[in-house]
Amino acid sequence: MTRRLLFALLALGIAQAAVYLVRPTTSYRLLAYGEGAREVGLVAAAFALLPIFLAIPLGRLSDRRAAPLLGIGCAVQTVGCLLLATATTTPAIAATSAVIGLGHLALALGAQDVVARESDHARHDHHFGLLTAGVSLGQLAGPLLAALILGDAVPSAGATTRALL
Fold first, then answer.
1. Considering its fold, how many domains does the chain have in total?
2. What percent of the chain has pLDDT over 90?
3. Is the pTM of this model over 0.70?
4. Is 90 exceeded by the pLDDT of residue 119?
5. The domain spanning residue 121 has which CATH number?
6. Range of 51's domain?
7. Averaged over 70-97, what is the pLDDT?
8. What distance in Å separates the CA atoms of residue 82 and residue 163, rounded to the nearest whole number?
């Protein structure tokens, strides 16, 4: 397995854990600011807003040019998480959630592109299986990390900031 392929597998697993930590923590952050179910739902939907419009164009770009989506996605998702940790208004939280969604899309497309390009044909299924297992592990780890970090804390800006950083 090449170093680039290993990086792609690890990056997507870690990114998935981050997303599955950030999304429920964002709901607690909104509750801490006195928002209700409508705002929580709208902000949760904002995560998918940019990916809805950019998934196909980014996928085509990746197919045609081997675009560096993995690195770009890592950077965008990281910046989005850091901005979310400092966001104090519902529109800012929604905007940063949209940025995180876009970063996660780019990262996932980039990781899939690396697996497709770096794996020899005989190992494609194995490497895509590892990618899928890493995603599942991230989906398991993210909420557990959120629970460990937040503990028994009531929804508060301070507790969610710690979890988001």
1. 1
2. 72
3. yes
4. no
5. 1.20.1250.20
6. 3-164
7. 95
8. 11
